[in-house]
Amino acid sequence: MNTETIKKVADFLHSAEKEKREVVRLTKEVYPDFSIEDAYLAQEEIVRQKLAEGHKIAGPKMGLTSGAKMKQMHVEDPIYGYVFDYMQVEDGETIHVSDYIHPKVEPEIGFVLKEDLTGPNVTAEEVLAKTDYVFPGIEIIDSRYENFDFKLPDVIADNTSAAGAVFGTTIRSVEGMHLDTLGVSLVINGKVATMGTGADVLEHPANSVARLANMLAKKGKSVKAGEPILTGGITAAVRIQSGDHVCAKFGEGLGEVNLLVK
Ligand code: 0L1
Ligand code: MG
Fold first, then answer.
1. Where is the Fumarylacetoacetase-like C-terminal domain (predicted)?
2. Each residue's pLDDT tens digit, 79-90
3. pLDDT tens per residue across span 13-66
4. Cα of 68 to ligand 2 centre, how many Å?
5. Are the CB atoms for 130 and 113 separated by under 8 Å?
6. What is the pLDDT of residues 189-215, one digit of tens each?
7. Where are the domains of the chain?
């Protein structure tokens, strides 16, 4: 794809996000040969456009980190995108469905590093050694594609459906923690909607951070100390609607994160 077409794709998806308008996936008719490399170039163009508009990157996020989702999409690699400052929601805050297209929520474990991590060959052990703390979070995903119907390049170009994130305020050192066996329930209106464990994220959420560092290394980038990193949904994402009270409950002393939906 030439630079002009990459920009066209980025403009198309970025305006769909701003106008809260769903669109047909690019690979369906217009660009059936859209590649993963081109998709990351389109994502980078969207990031450039957002930065030029004055938004700031809050931190990177990993997507498609569950074995089941990867199998379903026939991929071996998870994907990454970025959460921006304007997407951040406080714990307990009220969000409005009308600010999104068809939002879903998923509970995630977040990491903050005390040192930069530069791939390739970063391991989970190195991630844990360089972790300052972990925190509980909820990601709000809102694919710009109709019915969340996309192929891998579509979702990469669409900044991995990023739309919102709650970075919970409970923080814990990883010392003595078992992030793989840590249980999480997503409770909606007092009923458990879905459950999972940290191991549902690439067998251990630290593997997700390692994969992020190794993927960014191909672009000459690092994972930076101090930035909140979302490691990927622990459970399936659940559609939310007006009137919902969303509560993600985490084990290992990570507490809970809440959202109200209007
Ligand atoms: O954070 C995620 O895992 C979302 C990646 C994109 C998949 C989706 O929108 O369902
Ligand atoms: Mg996610």
1. 88-258
2. 999 999 999 999
3. 999 999 999 999 999 999 999 999 999 999 999 999 999 999 999 999 999 999
4. 14
5. yes
6. 999 999 999 999 999 999 999 999 999
7. 3-261
Token pair of 12 as six digits = 């198309």
How many other C-beta atoms lie within 10 A of the C-beta of residue 242?
11
**Topology annotation, domain 3-261:** Fumarylacetoacetate hydrolase; domain 2 (3.90.850)
CA-CA distance, 224 to 176, in Å (whole number)? 24
Gap between the Cα atoms of 118 and 212, Å rounded:
10
Tokens at residue 30, please?
């217009």
Question: Interface pTM (ipTM) of the complex?
Answer: 0.92
User: What separation in Å is there between the alpha carbon of 220 and the centre of ligand 2?
Assistant: 24
Confidence label for 185 from pLDDT (cuts 50, 70 and 90): very high
Ligand 1, residues at Cβ distance < 6 Å: 61, 63-64, 139, 141, 143, 148, 155, 160-161, 232-233, 237
Instruction: Give the DSSP letter of residue 140.
Output: E
Residue of the CA atom closest to atom 6 of ligand 1 = 160
Instruction: Show the tokens assigned to 142.
Output: 């809102």
- To test ligand 1's pocket by mutation, which of 62, 70, 161 has the most ligand atoms within 8 angstroms of CB? 161
